[in-house]
Write a structure and sequence with these properties.
By secondary structure, the chain is α+β, with helices and mostly antiparallel strands. The chain has one domain (about 30-130): Alpha-Beta Plaits (2-Layer Sandwich). Helices cover about 15% and strands about 35% of the residues. It has helices at about 10-20, 50, 95-100; strands at about 30-40, 60-65, 75-80, 85-90, 105-115, 120-130. The chain has a six-stranded antiparallel sheet, covered by helices on one side. A hairpin with a 5-residue loop joins strand 3 and strand 4. It starts with 9 loop residues before the first helix and ends with a strand.
Length: about 130
Amino acid sequence: MGRGLVPSSEEIWKIIQGYFGGNVQILPYIQEIFLMECHIAGTSYLDLEAVEAELKVGDALLFRREPDNVHDHLAVAIYDRKERKLGYLPRAKNEVPARLMDAGKLLFGKIEAKEWMGKWLKITVRVFMKDM
């Protein structure tokens, strides 16, 4: 049998919690899981000229579901650290991330690259899920 990581049983966690008086939250095997790479859709509809200078490769991006979006019920909006809207995950790629978020999973992005293409700011992002 391999020596890979194996999740602990519920019984073990009860023992550990009892030992620490139930005051410790242990989160085993937390990791970032890479899901995909894509560009941010809709940047041409927003005024991002002032924001662009502050966006750096590697910056974390916040994702928020917009299930009431009239254009796409699977919409996932993307925000920078200052909570300024940058656009959306592309419709052609948002179904799985939206369903994961609806199931309570934490998804986020990181800026991979950015460049102006005429009046369009092309921002390439890598999408991750935080597995807890």
